[in-house]
Amino acid sequence: MALNDDIALLSLVPLFAEIDEDKLRLIAFGAERRRLSRGQQLFREGAPADCAFAIASGSFSLSRTLVDGSAAVFDTVGPGTLLSELAMISLVERKFTATAEEDSEVIRINRPLFRRMLEEYPEVAAVVEARIRESLQSMIRKMERLAPKFA
């Protein structure tokens, strides 16, 4: 795919939606494409995460290991989805397993590349911080709604 196609795809990712094309060009230029066949795992739950993946084409099932050791799919995601966004900022482990549901392609965004963008464009750091804060607040609201079920 062409660099402009990658920039267009990245602009669809909510985390990058407010970032202008010139800044997205830095990510697109330094990122790498990876193709996966149906049934191939992109990453496994519990593995160290050093990058995020933007889904360019295809779809992925997201699963977690249950207490009894079996795996349960909790979501299926497609183009424009960013998986493991916190891995671009900090050392974390994968919270789920991502498996290609069909032949798919992703854009791999590694931590050094993303940090370079934040260093070169401090205004992007403010946008990213706001997006992450919104995501955390949304997660907290969901947890608060579930709390009575566990009381």
UniProtKB/TrEMBL annotation:
According to the entry, every stretch annotated as the Cyclic nucleotide-binding domain falls at 15-118
Q: Which residues form a coiled coil?
A: none
Per the UniProt record, one Pfam family is cNMP_binding
Q: Which InterPro entries match?
A: cNMP-bd_dom, cNMP-bd_dom_sf, Env_Response_Regulators, RmlC-like_jellyroll
- Database matches in Gene3D superfamilies: Jelly Rolls (2.60.120.10)
This protein is called: CRP-like cAMP-binding protein
Q: Which organism is it from?
A: Pararhizobium capsulatum DSM 1112
